[in-house]
UniProtKB/TrEMBL annotation:
Species this chain originates from: Panicum miliaceum (Proso millet)
The Thioredoxin domain, residue ranges: 1-168, 331-491
Pfam families assigned: C1_2, Thioredoxin_8
Similarity remark: Belongs to the nucleoredoxin family.
Keyword Repeat: yes
This protein's name: protein-disulfide reductase
Length: 582
């Protein structure tokens, strides 16, 4: 067990809760009624310090779980106390949030005490739950949020020994896993259909079972389950013993019911504790996820969703995704990729055109034989707006030298006015906003974040799925974005590097000397653009400069975008220079 860091009053974990929670002249905590409680009177152990705030969505989701656990332990007569350490910005928000909590809190007015606890326990994110022995101050765990979310009441008294015991029990359970142990509980031996029927879990014995983790209204999951439904029906048609069970992560029943109504398979009842347990049991990391259970009840694959996303409906031919079946799928995919042409990507039935600025239809046939960049982007995406001026500049440079080059904009905008406004800034072509080919292209190239550039060569073959990085590093010189061109550029840089100084001092980093090093991809701390192959670097400070920036000895200016920020649509998170599906 670890000991807490010293707090602002100079006490330490070894002095117990008084030394940790008291600050200055304050020797008490408060209840939401306003009652003051002497710290010395707290007899409960363990005690949890709950770092949380009303403005934090994950906190608001976790707090009800903690309240439920707190009340249940109290009803069983088990010793446990919680102390709320608020991260709210004002007292009104603190009071409204604290009013829902049945435990104690550090007074909001004691900002020094709250900040001292934040610093003492090195809190870098919330919700954060530190559980410790009230008598000695020894820290049982700083992962209380994780343990309570995963194990609930079973984790009590939250000691390392208890957590290890639970993990050992889970390991033993996996060794003896059956379909009943995965899906059932001591009080429930059935699943439900979307018509409300109860289906005994025993009916799934001897079948392959896919556990599909779902969230209603989340685009990537909705898209995945639509494809999975077709595969499910096909496997039923050809006589495969296959069933799917939805594991809902929805927080409300109406959202679950709406999405489940579209699914032809079974589900664990919404809100059942088993749903949360399975998240931990199968170490859920992303959505969509489809866990495949074999006919013997043992796990065959922790996630076959990637296989289905890659191959689409044709993935049914690879079922149940053995090594031999996957090899067959891979060979088919390879053959399909080898036969790819620009027409096969951009023509669908009567849709054999792209559009220009005035809405004029440009036949896809006019692009055949050119290098074409497919530009996945949207006006609502801040990184996309920031990248566009660079792309326009490099596009114009390439077009000056190479007439056999074009870009096609594939928009993720949600309305025509946004599309029109953003497209008006682009000197190239586009697919219409509501065009059905967009979904096919996003699926084909597995677009997970924007902005994204996919380069299609003159033969119609994909030459790069990350032309954006090549363009950011090499500019127009990256054309035509092939591996051969990248190798040429690297050789040119290596030759130039022979004439550069091995070390230098720079005004942007006067603390230490910068050393010329061979690097992979990095971000330049001078011009804040991407770099590759060579950098003037300080390892101690994690500082990099492009050779062009270091040798020019001046920082490249950067214009402000100046455009009002727009909120990303639900299901997307914008971080750094990319907006991804959450």
């Amino acid at each position: 067990m670890a000991e807490a860091e010293p707090t602002t009053n100079g006490g330490s974990a070894g002095g117990g809760m008084g030394a940790i929670l008291a600050a200055g002249d304050r020797d008490f905590l408060v209840r939401n009624s306003g009652e003051q409680v002497k710290i010395s009177s707290i007899e409960a152990s363990p005690v949890a310090l709950y770092f949380s705030a009303s403005w934090c969505p994950p906190c608001r989701r976790f707090t009800p779980k903690l309240i439920e656990l707190y009340k249940e332990l109290a009803s069983q007569g088990k010793s446990f106390e919680v102390v709320f350490v608020s991260g709210d910005q004002d007292e009104e928000a603190f009071n409204a949030y604290f009013a829902k909590m049945p435990w104690l809190a550090v007074p909001f007015s004691d900002s020094e005490g709250r900040e001292g606890l934040d610093g003492g326990f090195k809190v870098s994110g919330i919700p954060h739950l530190v559980i410790l022995d009230a008598k000695t101050g020894e820290v049982y765990t700083e992962d209380g949020v994780e343990f309570i979310s995963e194990y609930g009441l079973e984790a009590y008294p939250f000691t390392p020994e208890r957590i290890n015991e639970l993990k050992e029990q889970e390991k033993a359970a996996k060794d003896k896993q059956t379909i009943q142990s995965v899906l059932g509980t001591s009080t429930r031996d059935y699943l439900i259909s979307n018509k409300g029927d109860k289906v005994p879990i025993s009916e799934l014995e001897g079948k392959y079972v896919g556990l599909c983790f779902v969230v209603g209204g989340y685009g990537p999951v909705d898209e995945f389950t639509a494809v999975l439904a077709k595969i499910y029906e096909k496997l039923k048609e050809v006589g495969e013993k296959f069933e799917v069970v939805a594991v809902s992560l929805d927080s409300d029943e109406s959202s679950f019911n709406e999405s489940f109504a579209k699914m032809p398979w079974l589900a664990i009842p919404q809100g059942d504790k088993m749903c949360e347990k399975l998240v931990r049991y199968f170490e859920l990391r992303s959505l969509p996820t489809l866990v495949l259970i074999g006919t013997d009840g043992k796990t065959l694959n922790n996630n076959v969703a990637d296989i289905i996303e890659e191959h689409g409906f044709e993935a049914w031919e690879g079922f149940p995704y053995s090594a031999e079946k996957l090899e067959t799928l891979a060979e088919k995919a390879k053959a399909k990729a080898a036969s790819q042409t620009l027409e096969s990507l951009l023509i669908s039935g009567d849709l054999d055109f792209v559009i220009g600025k005035d809405g004029a239809k440009v036949p896809v046939s006019e692009l055949v034989g050119k290098t074409v960049l497919l530009y996945f982007s949207a006006k609502w995406c801040g990184p996309c707006r920031a990248f566009l001026p660079t792309l326009v500049k490099e596009y114009n440079k390439i077009k000056e030298k190479h007439s056999d080059f074009e870009i096609v904009f594939i928009s993720s905008d949600r309305d025509q006015s946004s599309f029109d406004e953003f497209f008006s800034e682009m000197p190239w072509l586009a697919l219409p906003l509501e065009d059905e080919r967009k979904a096919f292209l996003k699926k084909t190239f597995r677009i997970r974040g924007i902005p994204s550039l996919v380069a299609i060569g003159p033969t119609g073959q994909t030459v790069s799925r990350d032309a954006k990085a090549q363009l950011m590093i090499h500019g127009a010189d990256a054309f035509p974005f092939t591996e051969e061109r990248l190798e040429e550029l690297q050789k040119e840089l290596d030759e130039m590097a022979k004439g550069w100084p091995e070390k230098l001092k720079h005004e942007l980093h006067e603390e230490h000397e910068l050393v010329l090093l061979r690097r992979g991809t990095y971000g330049c701390d001078g011009c804040e653009e991407m770099g590759s192959t060579w950098s003037y670097r300080c390892d101690e400070c994690d500082f990099d400069l492009h050779p062009k920036c270091a040798l020019a000895e001046k920082k490249k200016g950067e214009e402000e975008d100046g455009k009002a920020a727009e909120e990303a649509p639900a299901g997307y998170v914008c971080e750094g220079d990319v907006c991804r599906k959450a």
